[in-house]
Every structure is written in C-alpha cells, then in structure tokens.
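Quick question, first post here. What does this chain look like in 3D?
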Amino acid sequence: MIGEFLTMAKAYWIAHVTVTDMDEYQKYVASAPPAFEKYGAKILVRGGSYEVMEGSGRARNVVIEFASYEDALACYHSEEYQKARMYRKDAGVADITIVEGI
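> Answer (accepted):
Ran it through. Tokens below.
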C-alpha cells in the first residue's frame, strides 16, 4: 500500500548560458524541440529577468522539467539533442546540470 503513493522523482536541466553568436544559437533553438518533445520535456524557465544573489551568473537561464532523471539523461544523450547541441557548442558558453527532484 505504501508503494502506491511513491512516485518517481522528476528531474531538471538547469542551464546558464552566455550567447556569443545569436545566429548560431537560433539554429540550436530551432533544432532542439524534437529531442525535448521525444522525452516529454517541459520548459519552465527560458530567459527572463534575473538577479544573481551569490556567485557568478550568465545572461540566459533555462530550467527544463522531465518526468524522470532517466528521461533527462536520455534526452541529453539522444541523437536528436546532440545534433542540436552542435549549433550551441560554438554559439556561446553554457553550464548545464541535470538534477533529480524530490
């Protein structure tokens, strides 16, 4: 009975990005959605106002929710995302962390 109430924890990509080549970055933005759709991603934060309270920050902040840690990892490593990532690779600097929720 207790097991009925246990659910798999969601997971999140947390990305901090500084875009240096907007044209290349736009190619990434246009080519990444198939990977996100395949793995059921939900974009919670993409850009917007922010304040760095401690430490350093980047100009663009993104949070993407996945149903599970496994889905988040699979999406990142997928062929679809890796193709899109090639555009982002030379379009700026990104710190991306995948974290499991509670």
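The chain has a mean pLDDT of 93.
The CA atoms of residues 16 and 88 lie 13 Å apart.
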